[in-house]
Amino acid sequence: MNPEYTVSRRRFMGGAAAALGVVGLKPSVALGAGLRPPPKGVEPLDPYDDLAKLSSNENPYGPSEKMLEAMKGAWKYSNRYGYPDGDILEKIAESHGVPTDHVMINAGSGETLRVAGLAFLRHEEKVVGVTPTYLTVYRVASGIDADVIERPLLPDYTQDIDDLIEVTNRNYRDVGMVYICNPNNPTGVIVPGDDIRRLLDGIPEDIPVLIDEAYHHFIEDPTYETAIPYIKEGRKVLVTRTFSKIYGLAGMRLGYGVAPPDMIDQMRDYATGSVNALVKWGGVAALEDKEYEAWIKETSNTLRDQTADILRGQGFDVLPSETNFFMVRTGRPSSEVRAEFRKHEVAVGRDFPPMLDWLRVSVGTEDEMKRFLTAWNEIFPDGMTAADSNSGW
Fold it and tell me: With 60 as the cut, is the pLDDT of residue 1 above it?
């Protein structure tokens, strides 16, 4: 089945043929080539404006048909407290092979990160992590007069685990938490499983380690491993996950944390309990809809890799991403490049110091990625010169 996709009111002019002409590709290597048709009911959301939204790493197709049906059925609980919730907590716990007392649900993984920061950081304590990365935990630390020890990425944009171990041990008395985003946002680069184990083995066992796995479902690199098994070992580890990415529920807000029960109990005092009835039922359906999950992963990763290959072919550096976004080095201030894209009704990224000439691009629909490439080739008609493409790798 090939459903007709809803696109922007200002449709991509010329369709696939025009896109191929712009990027100079042969039809056999066209963007989107080889993709399977989506499962029944998987269509992009109706656009609320003309932008191709490639800036916030959402799933552009929205919830699956099964998820929408489940949420529709939950409307009858909208006027009740203590309503049936589809056993969302039990379903999440079952998916990870842990008891329910190891799980806390929140309004998005961002809330889980905030709750963790409040629970495990005291005034003037330190959180250790890298920069650039996802900043919620650091912002919480700043808000409660805690400190942030931000360590730079290595030249290949991986996280320096040896450095994090050394810094944590050197500041042991003052460290309240170590934070790892895996894969890292905004780079999309993973921390291999062996490095996570080396980190946990290399620091004092009483220091909480928060590992944000928001993009876990997109990963294909065999060296990656989820940190959930360490929780089953009783390690002081909190893993956060979200339904905002592969499941398409960013606007509905559902995320959760998995940790030993004592850590979950410590976090409860800071949680709001603000998860709504609709998204709980949608989350249950999401965990059961494996066909949709597989299609989103395959489609997003294929479009990401095809787009990255086109940019690399023009001489641009693109980081090897394991997420539904990628970073490309433009050789120009990213703020200027974003402004140029907005003229083409394409929204991309934001600043991620110190990588201020890199652009983070979310993976959209096939049509949105063609719009992105059309705009890209007008903004960079000559590609990247050899001098500009020297990124210092």
Answer: no
If phi > 0 it is left, if psi is from -120 to 50 it is alpha, else beta; for residue 71 that is: alpha
Q: The dihedral of CA 105, 107, 113, 118: what is its sign? A: negative
pLDDT tops 50 at residue 360: yes
Tokens, residue 83? 């309503």
CA angle 231–146–144, rounded 5-degree value: 100
Helix axes 109-120, 261-268, angle to 10 degrees: 90
b/e burial code for range 248-278 (CB count within 10 A of at least 16 → b)? bbbebbbbbbbbbeebbebbeebbeeebbbb
- Angle, alpha carbons 140-143-147 (nearest 5°): 75
Residue 214 reports pLDDT greater than 70: yes
CA dist 339 and 67 (Å) reads 36
- pLDDT greater than 60 at residue 3: no
Q: What is the pLDDT of residues 58-98, one digit of tens each?
A: 999 999 999 999 999 999 999 999 999 999 999 999 999 99
